[in-house]
Structures are given as structure tokens and as C-alpha cells.
Amino acid sequence: MTRRKLIAGNWKMNGLNAALAEITAIGAGVAALGAKAPDVLICPPFTLISAAAKGSVAIGAQDCHVGTSGAHTGDISSVMLKDAGASSVIVGHSERRADHGEDDALVRAKAEAVLAAGLQAIVCVGETRAEREAGTAYEVVARQIAGSVPFATPGAIVIAYEPVWAIGTGLTPTNDDIAAMHGAIRRELAKSDAARAAVTPLLYGGSVKPGNAREILTLADVDGALVGGASLKAVDFMGIVGACG
Ligand code: PEP
Is residue 1 in some structural domain? Predict the structure, then answer.
């Protein structure tokens, strides 16, 4: 199994029905690229998943509950997301870890629920600025990998390395730092299963834009990008998708 490039967009808490036109435009842009197109995924808010999934672009969610159904007011299960047309679910995004106190054990349980529903789990890891400055970034990310990434069949798990300090800030690590962390993540995965490590896609996330996408996407062990702000407009997102070719 080879690792195809994947460009995933995380819309966060953005997007009303009118924004579905952006996903339609992304679908047209991807179709125009033909065989050169990478895999593309858009993760809109829950409210748009069902409508968005009627188009040609693969659709994901940004979170899910660990259970399948039950008395959990306001929560959404991976089974419901699959039913709505999602093919992937992001779990452990740093905004969930920070805003909702999600720890590695909960993120792992969510990832397991995603896999049990037959969907792909995109597990996010990444250090804070304080951890980077303290020199503990590798240690923190290794701990997150060990704690929040379940064992899964090839292709079912994607890991997104997103340094917290690079998300939405316009700041990015140096290319050398990105490549070094991605290499370290693959070596960490290889400790438990070398074959699994070799086929697990590793995305970089944090202020990826059309202007820096090509240099990041050609780095060793970078198999794609998880894109926040620049995924909201088709023209920006396609600038990143097109940088894969
Ligand atoms: C994200 O939130 O996953 C992200 C990478 O955001 P941005 O691209 O806006 O930094």
C-alpha cells in the first residue's frame, strides 16, 4: 500500500448552508485536476455534513462521542456521522483538547469508536509553544501517539502533526523542524509495528497556505496537510490541493 497525498480541510465552527457552494467548487477543481489530484476531504460543522456528502468531495466530521447512541445530550456518535455520509472523523484536535479537556485516553476511545463504525480516524497531536521552547516537543508528541493512537488496519488511521502554536497564527515551524518531527513520529509508530508505520499517512497542520504548501508537501514523511483557515474558500484550498501535483 502506497501513501497517497491527502489534503483535509477543517472548517471548525464556520459555515452556513451558503458555504456548500465552496465545497461544490472544490469538487469541480479536484475533478479538473484529474489523475494528478490528491485525496481531498472537507470536515464542515455537523450541520452541513448530510448536505455536503451529496456532492463529489469526501466529507468528514471534526469530533464524535465515544458511544454509539444513548443519553448524551448534544453529542453525535460516529455511527450517526457515517449515516450522514461522513467517511472520516478528526479526533483530538488541540482545540478539543484545550477547550473541552480531552486527554489522550478519551481521544483514543473516540478514535476506536470511529474505527468501529468503519470510518477513518484523523488523530491530531502537537506541542504547545511552551513545550517547544522547553525542548520537550518530541517527548510530548511521542506521549500523545502512545496514548491516543489505537492499533488499526492500514489506512484506517491518519495522524496530523499540528504544533498548537502554529494553528491559526500564520507561524510555521521551519521545514527542517517539520521533517524532523514527521520522521520521529514514523519511528515512534514503527516501535510497535514497522509495517503499520510505513503506511500511516502523516499530515502537517498549522498555517498551511497556498504560498507555503508546495515546500511543506514535498518534505520527507509529509503525506499531506490538515488545513484550517485556508480551507474555507475554494480558491485558497485549491491553491494547496494543486501544490501536490
Ligand atoms: C487546524 O485548526 O487544524 C489548522 C491547521 O488551522 P490553520 O490552518 O488555520 O492554522
Answer: no
